[in-house]
Request: fold
Amino acid sequence: IYTLSLPAALPIFQFTSTVADRYVYMAMMGPALALAWWLSRHFSSSRATAAVAVLAVCAVLSFWQSAHWRDDVTLYSHGIAANPHSYVAQNMLGTAYFERGTKQQAELQRHGIPVSQPVNGRTVAQLIDLAEKHFRESIRIKPDHAKGYSNVGLILLARGQHRRAEHFYRQSVKHDKKSIDGYNGLGFALAKQKRHKKALPIYRRSIALAEKVKEEYMKFGAVNAYANLTLSLEALGRYPKAVTAYRRIIELSPNNASALRKLPLALAHAGQIEEAETLCRELLNRRVDDPVV
Reply:
């Protein structure tokens, strides 16, 4: 059991793994069975005491090891310490820092505190910088890592560096022709540069890919791409097509507040005033105190 199971935990098989230690669980069943068999055949109180002592040490080590699983940052930091060449661990640690940074920013803003205020020793900017560092490292390790490119693009978009973001998103879709996030991000980067006509087919490519995926969680990708598509359609004055896109968003996400609010205005711009008014009244019945509606 030990010799057959252990190779799965070796670096040669764990180029992408972030948690190689878990593959040792089954392998350790072999030594455990061997020890139990040996004690049953050669039992003595001193040997039993020694076995209990060994198990106690193993329990302490297991408790210490569990600290690495406290959160995503500690988990993937430990994974990188064990295997610095894991591009997956680098990308996941970058994602963990990015999510921590965005959550920290939202929390500070909610309480009216400047986002430059450090929390647990790090500011939002420092967390985002750490995220970018690990995303770039994942690309250095694996130059065709599409997700790494799109993640760097996401950070550059957030910083307003739209042309640089475009470059990274183009690299993402170059290495993964089915990257929903890559095409959506590329379209958004183009739109932020006022290149809306070029953004439209890119968004539609992202939507086509997302619509083919059956998993429920991938609906978010389609909804996000449709939402970005509506911005470019409206910027170009193509309101009837924007209406169609808003309706599709509502089909995919019936309680999407943004689409429900924007659809009546798009209908009005498209000349469908009566339908826009009817929809507004329906929304008012559902959200009486909504000033936007």
About this structure: The two ends are 66 Å apart (CA to CA).
